[in-house]
Design a protein that fits this description.
The protein has helices at 18-26, 28-36, 47-63, 70-90, 99-102, 106-114, 120-125, 186-203, 226-249, 258-261, 271-277, 322-326; strands at residues 131-139, 146-155, 158-164, 170-174, 180-184, 209-213, 219-221, 285-295, 301-307, 310-317, 332-340, 346-356. The chain has twelve helices and twelve strands. The strands form three sheets. The chain has a five-stranded mixed sheet, with helices on both faces. A five-stranded mixed beta barrel has the order 8-9-10-12-11. The longest helix is centred in the middle third of the chain and has 24 residues, at 226-249. By secondary structure, it is an alpha+beta fold. Among the domains are: 38-114, no CATH class; 278-356, OB fold (Dihydrolipoamide Acetyltransferase, E2P) (Beta Barrel).
Length: 357
Amino acid sequence: MMNKIGEINFKEIKRISPSQFYSMKNCAYKSLLAEAFDKKPLLPLSPNAYFGTVLHKMLELIVKGILKGEDDFNAEFDRQVKALEEDLKQKGFGFFVPLKVKLKNFGLKKIQLKKHLRSESEKTTSLGNIKFHSEKWFESQDKLICGKVDLVIENENEIEILDFKTGAIIQDCLDDEGEIYSDVKNEYKEQLKIYAQLYFENTSKFPTALSLVDLAKQKFPVEFSEQECKSLFDEAKSLLKATNDCIHTKLFSANPKQENCKYCLYRPACSFFHKELETDFSFNDVFGEVTNVKKFQNGNVSVFLQNGNKNLIIKNFSSEKFDKLGNHKNKQIRIYNVRKEATEFVYSAADTTIIYE
């Protein structure tokens, strides 16, 4: 049975989180699709994304003081990885297992993560009037904006909000003169500023510092003003309302381009993206009518698609796909997560390749 998207039942998005804001701003339709499918992805995530959930959980346990030493850390890390690998197998993503082999930076990230364990001297200095609040839940008074802050440090009149990131925090940017410089990703800046306003709504105090911390324990401060935080907060609420209004008016729109669609897990359900695939061959997804399916002596299968005046070849499917693809001859299909070959319009199937009719 080929994967198929049935009728999409859109539902109102009840609230928006600071981490969701930037994505919704770039393409609100993606958020509507995620809500319609109960946030169950239509495509597999990258193994790094799955592993990132383990890293973030470990950071949470370290910050809360649950993991106090290296033995605790190693035992919990192994337990978390094993549980994730079992979950991946159950979801049909066993090709990601073992993560230790499949991920190039598995060992490095574990070493970096271990640096977050507090030393004895840090434990001593953390006493006194300083208060640590980890995984602290905040929501706006109207409950339209809410989220969980990784860590809040309160020290009398000094209040710092910290957000931990397991991936890259900075990116290369161009200044007005065309010179390259590094800066914190804009999405992370906006996320922290909305958290700052959330904190203010709940405590009547504004944080004095906002910071991002990476796995290597590097801290990246984020400059902000109270007005900036309030403006982004109001913008998030307006965006949520406008996005939900689309459901009632049926006037949907999307913004299909590489930076928005490349990692979108709901593109199999996006008609705007499908239209883009008809003429744009820059994506790692293909669309077309099946004209032929061939099985070779080594068992590999190739499928030939016709897209307008372009003939596409997708190679290296397993032999078990032969009948399924053959049954769709002269029918249109969409194939996601393929690899481009050196020859134009020739692609290879990968472990994460998924086919939808």
